Amino acid sequence: MEFESKVLSKIILEKLYESGKTIATAESCTSGKIGEVITSTPGASAYYKGGTICYSNFAKTKVLGIDAGLIEEKNAVSEEVAREMVKGIIDLMEADYAIATTGFAGPGADPGFKVGTIWIAYGSKNDIRTLLIEEDEGREENLRNATFRALQLFVEYLREIYPDPTDFDTIPKPGTIQESE
Asked: With the C-alpha atoms ordered 164, 165, 171, 176, is the resulting torsion angle positive or negative?
């Protein structure tokens, strides 16, 4: 796990632990990588409710309660489905916040989509924000970037909701922090 992700995980711990709020994850293309980073920080059980890997459309409909018609109409890799994944996991886990990902990490994608198309959704049930990534740097790098960006966005979101004048102004960017040995 990259050092920058560990830093973001620690910030998430601080913000959620102090606020008494909880988070859950619904991951498709990232396959649990976001949950792995969140739980890498000791004490995560105080605020991380759990997560699901809803890789298939079947899982998205059966576990998260997403309407199959929406998936058929918009595609599983769409902003609408990513938003519904956030709502579904918040309901399922009775969490305050959630992060969800759905995308084509590679090597293939559905017709009309590019490899590297990944939707990230995050927030609360009443305040869901999204980001579209459309960069193909190879499967592993696409997944690493989506995981890091999802955590980064969520930290920015938490800092907006729970401002702290002692917070640093910047959030780590990939490759900007060198881990000392």
From this structure: negative
Q: Which residues pair with 131 in a beta bridge?
A: 120
The residue type found at 88 is G
Beta-carbon contacts of 65 under 8 Å, excluding residues fewer than 6 positions away, are 88, 91, 92
Pairing relation of β-strands 23-27 and 48-53?
Answer: parallel
How do 117-124 and 127-134 pair as beta strands?
antiparallel
The number of angstroms, rounded, from the C-alpha of 42 to the middle of its chain's C-alpha atoms is 19
Give the rounded percent of residues in the chain with a pLDDT score beyond 70. 90
Q: In the structure encoding, which two tokens stand for residue 21, read together?
A: 């709020």
Reported as a single tens digit per residue, the pLDDT across 53-72 is 999 999 999 999 999 999 99
CB burial of 80-93 (b: ≥16 within 10 Å; e: otherwise) equals bbbbbbbbbbbebb
* Torsion angles phi and psi, residue 14, rounded to 5: -60, -45
Max CA distance (Å), the chain: 52
